[in-house]
Design a protein that fits this description.
It is built from no helices and eight strands. By secondary structure, it is mainly β. It has one domain. Strand 1 and strand 2 form a beta hairpin.
Length: 103
């Protein structure tokens, strides 16, 4: 059983029991969240969801909120005295996929 969900402007391929890091959610740690699956299927071909079929629901539990690695942004113009540097750390949420329910 697997599904494709969309959150934070990105799409993720998920299976039950998987732990993944997504864009930050506002819910608290330990809370249950549900995502609407864009597409889902089980191991049997007969249970595969067609594009017109109702989508599945994916239930996940929030494990923790964290920040990603620091990304250094450096700008420089040649033959000029222009140098500028900054950094960025993305806010992330780590979730564990609990269940995928086909409609």
């Amino acid at each position: 059983m697997y599904a494709i969900i969309e959150t934070g402007g990105k799409q993720y391929w998920v299976v039950p029991g998987e732990i993944l890091q997504i864009e930050k959610l506002t819910a608290k740690e330990g809370a249950e969240v549900t995502f609407k699956a864009l597409w889902s299927a089980s191991q049997d071909d007969k249970n595969a969801a067609a594009p017109k079929a109702p989508a599945a629901k994916v239930t996940a539990r929030i494990i923790r909120h964290l920040r990603g690695p620091k990304i250094i942004v450096f700008r420089k113009k040649t033959k000029k005295a222009y140098e500028k540097g900054s950094g960025h750390r993305q806010e992330l949420t780590e979730i564990e996929v609990k269940d995928i329910q086909l409609s």
